[in-house]
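Title: Comparing notes on inverse folding

I've been comparing how different people in this forum approach sequence design from structure. To keep things fair, I'm posting one structure and asking everyone to reply with a full sequence. Here's the target:
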């Protein structure tokens, strides 16, 4: 299983939280990461997105089919995310577009060598590989990138 965690790009402040839009800078971040992801992820990648407007806008830059899941909305827990993606039994690549602090907490949980409070800045992507070896689930951090790096 390949689990790719993508925090929504930079969004405006405001209320209600679920209706916050991306800033112009955020739209640019989403575009940069989309180009990088489209070069890297398989065509059959399952894409699951928070219903929040800023997450929906972020993923649209990817120009791929995706599913919206209220289970990964703002305030989701680590177990919510892992349940939705079927960790670690699912096969193939799954991209989750969601929110901090949850995505950082998922990465911390799966990769015990990360420092506490692993922070996904707006637009950041973290890619985690998982495999089963002798009945043990193993995971490793495959990549982390941010739009400013591209």
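Reply #1:
Here's my take.
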């Amino acid at each position: 299983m390949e689990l790719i965690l993508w925090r929504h790009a930079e969004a405006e402040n405001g209320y209600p939280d679920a209706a916050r839009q991306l800033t112009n800078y955020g739209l640019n971040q989403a575009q940069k990461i989309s180009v990088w992801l489209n070069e890297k992820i398989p065509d059959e990648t399952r894409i699951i997105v928070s219903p929040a407007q800023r997450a929906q806008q972020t993923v649209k830059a990817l120009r791929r089919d995706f599913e919206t899941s209220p289970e990964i909305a703002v305030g989701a827990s680590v177990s919510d995310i892992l349940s939705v993606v079927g960790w670690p039994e699912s096969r193939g690549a799954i991209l989750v577009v969601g929110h901090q602090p949850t995505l950082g907490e998922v990465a911390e949980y799966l990769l015990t060598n990360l420092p506490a409070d692993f922070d996904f800045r707006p637009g950041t992507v973290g890619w985690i590989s998982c495999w089963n070896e002798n009945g043990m689930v193993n995971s490793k951090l495959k990549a982390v990138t941010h739009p400013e790096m591209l």
